[in-house]
Design a protein that fits this description.
This protein is α+β, with helices and mostly antiparallel strands. It has helices at residues 50-63, 70-88, 128-138, 146-176, 189-201, 214-217, 242-255, and strands at residues 12-15, 25-33, 36-44, 92-95, 99-108, 111-120, 220-223. It has a domain at 13-177 and 210-223. The chain has a three-stranded antiparallel beta sheet. The relative contact order is 0.16. Pfam families: SNF5.
Length: 256
């Protein structure tokens, strides 16, 4: 099998966009009004008119029987996130690495899933939703809410990487004009996870999973019983798909 180097790629400059098949924006809403809390995560087409957002907010409040005060706050939250996304459009971003590590660490209802994998941000035909469906099938996850949550988490990390790339280009442009560019740093969980994994792999990493690296990629799925919902740590009843284990074994043997 062909080895793909993580350290040999040259930086490329492109116009800002989500590195996926569609240019959908990950939206996360967390509101509390009059003692009631509404939390949700979904994707939104930035080309949709504001009237669609208004209709969505009103319909959501009606369906969930939320107070009317939720509607303006939901509108403000969604419109603010879309405005931030649109502020990046038309600007240049620099992609230093085509292959980036992503990490999933989610709890949805009674399902806890942890996994990490490599993602090609140079592939603009990638589909986080399709990846999430396949992952759930491989792990025998039947809760229909887990797949969408995984897809949104992937999109959030890709969006973070893309937006931080725009910030890097801005700083470089300032430095070219004779100003001292501030040091680029991020407290983002997605970016810090990527940095930590690159430190492990070094400058000549490979996307082929060697035997000694299996533990880095092995997905973990925990099922939390209802009576244990209040505990911080879920029980250790992890499962690993047999199909994925066999594929990794073959890949490892071919890379030795």
């Amino acid at each position: 099998m062909k080895t793909v180097s993580l350290g040999a790629s040259r930086p490329s400059t492109v116009n800002f966009r989500m590195p996926t098949r569609d240019n959908l924006v990950p939206i996360r809403v967390d509101l509390e009004v009059d003692g009631q809390r509404y939390r949700d995560a979904f994707t939104w087409n930035p080309r949709d008119p504001d009237s669609e957002i208004i209709s969505f907010a009103k319909r959501t409040a009606k369906d969930l029987k939320l107070p009317a005060n939720f509607v303006p706050q939901m509108l403000q939250s969604i419109q603010g996130q879309l405005a931030e996304f649109r502020s990046y459009e038309g600007q240049e971003m620099q992609i230093k690495e085509k292959i980036v590590p992503l990490k999933i660490d989610l709890r949805v209802n009674n399902t806890v899933i942890r996994d990490q994998f490599l993602w090609d941000i140079g592939n603009l035909d990638s589909d986080p939703e399709e990846f999430a469906r396949t992952l759930c099938d491989d792990l025998n996850i039947t809760d229909p809410e887990v797949g969408p949550a995984i897809a949104v988490s992937i999109r959030e990390q890709l969006y973070e990487i893309a937006s931080q790339s725009v910030s890097v280009m801005r700083e470089k442009q300032l430095s070219k004009k004779g100003r001292r560019a501030p040091e680029f740093s991020s407290n983002s969980k997605a970016v810090n996870n990527a940095v930590d994994l690159f430190k492990y792999f070094g400058s000549k990493g490979s996307v082929i999973r060697k035997r000694k690296e299996w533990y880095l990629y092995e997905p973990v799925v925990d099922v939390v019983a209802n009576e244990e919902d209040g505990k911080e740590e879920p029980p250790n009843n992890s499962s690993r798909p047999k199909k994925r284990a066999e594929e990794e074994k073959v890949a490892s043997l071919q890379s030795l």
